[in-house]
């Protein structure tokens, strides 16, 4: 959530996108998970059931807030879930991008190119915004370069060991 909110700062200022709204959407979008946990496709829970659980959780959270805050949180949560605004779609793309960025960071940390390839495969073709598509393209280039350098260094190590 936090890194996605920070990504709002890199939205070009000349853009029609409301950067503050994106920041708020990023902070709110997974808030229900604080109650229901991170429900993934591997959990065996239908999308309808997931949505219902998360909606009930956000209502529970909103019941603890004053009326104005509650209305804003619920509105932002529903805007993100419905994906009908440019801001909601951009933040969804930030969420997907954050996932593959973290996967790449783990590959570098573990010195294990393509270890988390499944995340890249699962997000391929799902990005809706040109802005994030450019970020993804750059990340892919960096990832390919990391893989090439890793392979090259491995070959050099094997040659010097022989």
Can you walk through the features of this model?
The protein is mainly alpha-helical and 162 residues long. The chain is built from eight helices and no strands. Helix 4 runs antiparallel to helix 5 and helix 6 runs parallel beside helix 8. It is elongated and about 70 Å long.
Please summarize the sheet with the most strands: none
Distance, first to last CA: 48 Å
Q: Determine Rg (CA atoms, Å).
A: 19 Å
User: Tell me, what's the shape?
Assistant: elongated
How many runs of DSSP E, i.e. beta strands?
0
Q: Element order, helices and strands?
A: HHHHHHHH
* Percentage of residues in helical conformation: over 70%
Main structural class: mainly alpha
**In what range is the share of β-strand residues?**
under 5%
Q: Which regions contain 5 or more consecutive residues with pLDDT less than 50? A: none
Mean pLDDT: 93
Quickly count the helices. 8
Name the descriptors.
single chain; 162 residues; mainly alpha; 8 helices; 72% helix; elongated
Question: How do you describe this structure in short?
Answer:
It catalyses: a 2'-deoxyribonucleoside 5'-phosphate + H2O = a 2'-deoxyribonucleoside + phosphate. This protein is an all-alpha fold and about 160 residues long.
């Amino acid at each position: 959530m936090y890194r996605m909110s920070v990504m709002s700062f890199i939205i070009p200022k000349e853009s029609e996108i409301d950067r503050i709204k994106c920041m708020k959407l990023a902070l709110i979008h997974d808030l229900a998970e604080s109650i229901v946990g991170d429900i993934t496709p591997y959990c065996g829970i239908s999308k309808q059931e997931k949505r219902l659980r998360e909606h009930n959780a956000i209502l529970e959270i909103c019941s603890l807030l004053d009326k104005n805050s509650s209305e804003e949180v619920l509105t932002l949560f529903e805007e993100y879930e419905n994906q009908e605004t440019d801001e909601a779609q951009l933040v969804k793309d930030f969420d997907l991008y954050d996932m593959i960025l973290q996967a790449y960071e783990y590959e570098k940390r573990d010195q294990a190119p393509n270890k988390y390839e499944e995340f890249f495969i699962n997000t391929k073709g799902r990005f809706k915004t040109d802005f994030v598509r450019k970020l993804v393209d750059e990340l892919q280039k960096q990832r390919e370069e990391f893989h090439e350098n890793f392979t090259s260094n491995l070959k050099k190590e094997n040659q010097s060991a022989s």
